[in-house]
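Q: what sequence does this backbone want?
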């Protein structure tokens, strides 16, 4: 029997999942870790925590599954995008990783735009300079921590640091590298032009692979530490959104995905490069050769509900532990007792600034319309509705760009909630679909490993062989009218507050 391993280095934890070649989950393990926020808008993690979680979850999966290591034919990697991992000449980590949701680099983005030119950035990288991207983080280190910058020998993304630890190779792949702002999106390789303009040493950057290409093999030391077999191939893999799209079967036009994890993403496959001239959505290389994708990102999707859980739902967490259920189940049950629209309570999910459609690192979270009548359950539902409105912002831009949207496949932690799935159908006024695969990015990474090792001929064949639609949510026009009214207010709220948000910044 042949098996494939998918490893997902997420923001809240690392998940390792073992699949058979039919796409069935054999074993899964997750190890959580923390995110540090030294200042408002900053977000950092320790790469050592990712590696410890990777080793722990691989060991757990092998122990639980009782699968022999020689039966695992390939390993696929995925994970949070844009994070900056810096190594010195001895491969020692120079500082904590500045991760995707960090918002400190607004000034560096202005400087990058001035240095490169706005149109040239769009022409080469298909995106404007954004605080979340890796290039602005590098420039921040150069300006603010020159003692660190002078010691850099290698620059890696989060999943690619794990690849280095597994294989000893410095490598990345096109979908994740697209989010650095240093890749030529058309030619699917580093842009020497931009690298030279920003005066970044090109030797610091890893080799770029296509997502299904083998990028290295498991070393003897890692085999001893984890139980994997020495020589097991490790493929390029993908950024979490591209790999998650593969795991959702988003490999053709007309079907888009809506993912609610820590962030929220609307993702569409394209056969050509489509760029939003306003820079509100991202255009990146897809994890399929000679294809691309367009995605809108809301920074604080599942993060908003997790923030509320951790700060205001202590009782629910305690009860959930006694009942051996997820606290989110109890929170969702409370939200189900609230009518759509929450009697005028709206939530803006801008806890970490915002990308789509506002590109605003200063934006803040807001409860609007709060009255003495509202309760905790109203606030829970308003968070879910506000996140869904933010995803509709993304969807509206895709349609504005003439990208075909016939149905929406949902995934991520938010897709576990039937309420949230139906809410998306009613807000989007689109059919919402779930599939048999629930592991998202880890599954997509495993399928890419299957293609790279010859189990499947190509990514489309891998998806067709393993993915089936299982549940359909039709939209309700009456609820859609309620949501449409609140959505119009939601959109105006940002416009009314955007000039006030910067006044709250400690940097002002």
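A:
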């Amino acid at each position: 029997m042949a098996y494939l391993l998918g490893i997902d280095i997420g923001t809240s934890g690392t998940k390792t999942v073992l699949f058979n070649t039919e796409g069935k989950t054999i074993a899964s393990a997750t190890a959580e870790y923390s995110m540090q926020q030294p200042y408002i808008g900053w977000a950092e993690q320790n790469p050592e925590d990712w590696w410890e979680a990777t080793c722990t979850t691989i060991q757990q999966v092998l122990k639980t599954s009782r699968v022999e290591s020689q039966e695992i034919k390939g390993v696929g990697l995925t994970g949070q995008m844009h994070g900056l991992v810096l190594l010195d000449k001895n491969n020692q980590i120079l500082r904590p990783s500045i991760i995707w949701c960090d918002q400190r680099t607004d000034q560096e983005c202005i400087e990058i735009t001035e240095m490169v030119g706005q149109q040239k950035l769009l022409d080469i990288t298909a995106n404007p300079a954004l605080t979340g991207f890796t290039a602005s983080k590098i420039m921040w280190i150069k300006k603010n921590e020159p003692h660190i910058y002078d010691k850099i020998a290698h620059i890696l993304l989060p999943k690619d640091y794990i690849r280095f630890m597994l294989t000893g190779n410095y490598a990345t792949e096109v979908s994740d590298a697209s989010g650095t702002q240093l890749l030529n999106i058309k030619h699917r390789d580093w842009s020497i032009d931009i690298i030279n303009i920003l005066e970044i040493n090109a030797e610091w950057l890893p080799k770029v692979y296509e997502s299904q290409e083998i990028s290295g093999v498991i070393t003897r030391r890692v085999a001893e530490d984890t139980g994997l077999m020495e020589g097991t191939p490790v493929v390029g893999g993908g950024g979490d959104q591209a790999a998650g799209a593969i795991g959702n079967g988003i490999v053709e036009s007309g079907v888009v995905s809506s993912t609610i994890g820590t962030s929220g993403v609307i993702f569409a496959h394209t056969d050509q490069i489509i760029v939003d001239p306003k820079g509100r959505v991202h255009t990146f290389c897809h994890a399929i050769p000679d294809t691309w994708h367009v995605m809108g990102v809301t920074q604080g999707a599942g993060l908003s509900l997790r923030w509320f859980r951790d700060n205001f739902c202590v009782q629910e967490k305690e009860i959930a532990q006694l009942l051996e259920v997820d606290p989110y189940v109890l929170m969702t049950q409370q939200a189900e007792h609230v009518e759509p629209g929450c009697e005028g309570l709206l939530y803006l999910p801008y806890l970490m600034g915002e990308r789509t459609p506002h590109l605003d690192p200063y934006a803040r979270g807001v409860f609007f319309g709060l009255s003495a009548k509202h309760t905790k359950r109203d606030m829970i539902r308003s968070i879910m509705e506000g996140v869904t409105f933010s995803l509709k912002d993304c969807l509206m831009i895709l349609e504005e760009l003439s990208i075909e949207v016939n149905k929406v496949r949902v995934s991520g932690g938010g897709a576990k909630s039937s309420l949230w799935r139906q809410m998306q159908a009613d807000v989007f006024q689109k059919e919402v679909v779930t599939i048999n695969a629930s592991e998202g990015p880890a599954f997509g990474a495993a399928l890419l490993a299957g293609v790279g090792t010859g189990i499947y001929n190509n990514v489309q064949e891998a998806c067709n062989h393993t993915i089936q639609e299982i549940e359909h949510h039709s939209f309700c026009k009456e609820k859609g009218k309620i949501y449409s009214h609140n959505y119009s207010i939601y959109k105006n709220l940002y416009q009314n507050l955007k000039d006030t948000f910067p006044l709250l910044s400690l940097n002002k």
